[in-house]
Amino acid sequence: QVQLVESGGGLVQAGGSLRLSCVASGRIFNLGVMGWYRQAPGKQRELVATITSGGSTNYVDSVKGRFTITRDNAKSTVYLQMSSLKPEDTAVYYCNAGVGVVTIITYWGQGTQVTVSS
Q1: pLDDT confidence of 103, banded at 50, 70, 90?
Q2: Exposure string (b/e) for 65-100, b if CB count within 10 Å is 16 or more?
């Protein structure tokens, strides 16, 4: 089993910044792509950003230039630095990780609330 624990969410004013962290633990051999997703009320969960173990990143267009995803492989931790936050960034943010080589199993964290006030 793999556990993902997020932290760093909260309430911030528009234009502000937050940093989310997600620590993976348990049977994390071959920890692969890690990422952040978000789900706003009444909307589907959407991809925010992903990062491979080698550091290659991918972002949804709406956060490019404002959010930065990084990871510390030694700590099995992924971060999401969010800047210039907008009210439309308000959502529950979920950490995601793929574990395995031939068969990839996807794990999710419990989510952390990010609220951006206007």
Answers
A1: confident
A2: eebbbebeeeebbbbbebeebeeebbbbbbbbbbbe
